[in-house]
Amino acid sequence: MGQARNDNMTAPNDSFFEQVFALARLIPRGRVTSYGAIARALGTARSSRMVGWAMSAAHSADVPAHRVVNRTGLLTGKAHFSPPSLMQKLLEQEGVKVKNDKVQDFERLFWNPTELMDSLPKLHS
Predict the structure, then answer these.
(1) Of 12, 56, 75, 102, whose Cβ has the fewest other Cβ atoms within 10 Å?
(2) Where are the domains of the chain?
(3) Angle of helix 7-24 relative to helix 48-56, nearest 10 degrees?
């Protein structure tokens, strides 16, 4: 609102970003997922960087961007939080242990959105 935007650059991403935000909202408290896992769940496996851009644009409390980390559990998106330590703080408030900017016990805490997408009824057979 109030800011001009270049619709030629942002319009194609708007729908993708909304899909990313919708999936991120499903990540349970105390769990994490990766940019790549979200991209795969949306059928765009090579778009993990775009998922990262979406998370950096998610300045809304209803999108838990702090629950999205890289494929090894590193808090690579922390620079987009103000202050950068906020990402770790939010995760720790949910019971996620972080050490040296890395989620501890990542494999156990990993939430795979592809499993959720596979369990949904197909619209077309």
Answers:
(1) 12
(2) 14-118
(3) 90
Question: What residues are paired with 32 via a beta bridge?
Answer: 110
Tokens representing residue 98 in the block: 């972080």
In SS3 terms, 22-66 reads as HHHCCCCCCCEEEHHHHHHHCCCCCCHHHHHHHHHCCCCCCCCHH
Fold of 14-118: Arc Repressor Mutant, subunit A (1.10.10)
> For residue 74, what are its two tokens?
């590193």
**Pairing state between β 102-103 and 98-99:** antiparallel
C-alpha to C-alpha distance for 86 and 90, rounded to whole angstroms: 6
Residue with tokens 């590193």: 74
Chain segment 47-88, per-residue pLDDT in tens:
999 999 999 998 777 999 999 999 999 999 999 999 999 999
**Do the beta carbons of residue 98 and residue 73 sit within 8 Å?**
no
Tokens of 100: 């040296």
Q: Which H helix or E strand runs over 83?
A: none
Pair type for strands 68-69 and 33-34: parallel
